[in-house]
Amino acid sequence: MATWLQLYFLAGLLLPLLACAQPASDTGITGTITMSPVSGGPIRKGETDSKPLAQTEFVVKKGEETVTTFTTDAAGHFSVSLGAGHYSIVKKDRSVVGSYGPFEVEVEAGKMKTVTWNCDSGIR
């Protein structure tokens, strides 16, 4: 049977390990990407001329180095974990008409930066 001293010693060894196992706060960016205009001609009263940019892949760069990629969901939402620093985000396939970034963002340690970006579809 363990004595109090042995249990105290064991707890002293395990507590620092448990503290290290706690997840760190998220750092990165989360948000929504939309596209507009979605149709040519004038915007009709009461109608929106933007839509979520769904299932679209973007590249995250820090300087000239590609850090990661992410894909928006059906509603144009995304979330990506990144270290603190300055990043540039651009659509991966840039061969289509329109403007899809670059979007510049500064990420702070321990914080999820929330963004809303709008891409220009090129429709006129």
Write the layout of secondary structure elements.
Elements: H1 4-21, E1 28-36, E2 51-52, E3 57-62, E4 65-71, E5 77-81, E6 85-91, E7 103-107, E8 112-120
Parallel strand pairs: 1-8
Antiparallel strand pairs: 1-2, 1-5, 3-4, 3-6, 6-7
Structure, described:
- The protein has 124 residues and is mostly beta strands.
- The protein contains 1 helix and 8 strands; from the N terminus they run αββββββββ.
- The chain has one helix at residues 4-21, and strands at 28-36, 51-52, 57-62, 65-71, 77-81, 85-91, 103-107, 112-120.
- The strands form 2 sheets. Strands 1, 2, 5 and 8 form a 4-stranded mixed sheet that branches. The protein has a 4-stranded antiparallel sheet with strand order 4-3-6-7, with no helix packed on it.
- The longest helix is centred in the N-terminal third of the chain and has 18 residues, at 4-21.
- It is elongated, with a radius of gyration of 23 Å.
- The N and C termini lie far apart (81 Å).
